[in-house]
Amino acid sequence: MPEGKNKKFRPVFGGRLSGTLRVLGNEENNGEGLLFLGNYMALDHSRGAAVYLDALKPHAVLICGKRGYGKSYTMGCMLEELAFLHPAIKGKLASLIIDTMGIFWTMSYPNASETGRLKNWGLAPKGLETEVFVPAGKVEAYRKRNIEVKPFSISIRDLSGSQWCRVLKIEEVSPLGILLVRTIESLREKGHHYSFEDIISEIFLDTRSDPTTKGAAENYFRAVKAWGLFSKEGTSLSELISGGRTTVLDVSPLENENVCAAAVSILAGRFYAERLEARRSYEKKQMGEKPEGKEFPMVWLFIDEAHIFVPAGRESLASEMLINRCLRQGRQPGLSLVLATQRPASLQPDVVSQSDLLICHRLTSSDDILALESSRPLYMQESLRTYLKKMGSEKGAALIVDDHSESVHMVRIRPRRSWHGGGEPSALEPYAEERNEEMTVQRSK
Description:
The chain is of the alpha/beta class. 35% of the residues lie in helices and 18% in strands.
């Protein structure tokens, strides 16, 4: 790993440095805009120097590992670090996580359960200022559980007729599919937003379909309306994201994976388009022109359970946008993508090859290891399997492959400062104190 001078830098969140600064993703970084990931893990598993990830430039990151070994936890650490950056840098960045499991709303609470472990790292519990969005139709269900959320919806007009067919699992060439495509495209051509009632009215105005097909189409759209995700106008980007904010988009109430993929595709496409425009404004500014309006921030888009959105062997509604735009082209306009999965073998192979940073927690499935091995860079002196064997079974340990500096690192990820909602529940946890007392009594007899 290239080493940089560490003259003025003082780590904000702990981590001891010995005269050098180790930054993944940008060896030219002189100590600004750093995300503290953890510490090097020596062969005897002792803790070494601190390891940081550059946040000044965009990155494509893949986090993988078997269930329970730290994927979501590591994503949470990165979100924390972005939220705690210096205001001058933080204000130019925005973070949004697609939460498929409903576990990231807890980040607004301090991690009181690991106070001792945090103290050993020179850290203290601290919650984040987050905004949690859920499908508009599910807001009341969350508020009844005393979870403060905001409504999120997608404009009905954002989906084409073909996309609606895929969401509803209808063949485009079937009589019903033909009616849906014809109806949606007719409304979209008018150039304004429309409601489900407008769609249903348009369906019954169609003179080329029979009453049975029209009735089926009406039933489908009335069912979609009940999902609570789509509306006439939709949530604007300015409501959802802006410089310095951390946003959680909880899509866990949506059971239909096609719907989740459609939502991710639309959002990612809007982020990409806004960043392209912001990049043009930046270039004009560099040439001496005065920028117009407020610049859209550089976005860090986090997606948990990534195999749902970029699956191997088939295309989801989000595949093209995430791979062809965000992964292959997103870094140039300033869009970072962080994907996490426990099933690398079920992930589109381009995700592995296009990521400039791989964070690999423990893996034991041969298929998953082979999926990562297939894109193993030449600078890795040993096989991935060998590195994973050396890493052992410690939770939180990670093998990091940094394609930017062409280097490999064994790191122990730091503890979370905010509450982690992704741990596995245990039937014993509510009675842990009583159980410990009982065991103490038994040992004394």
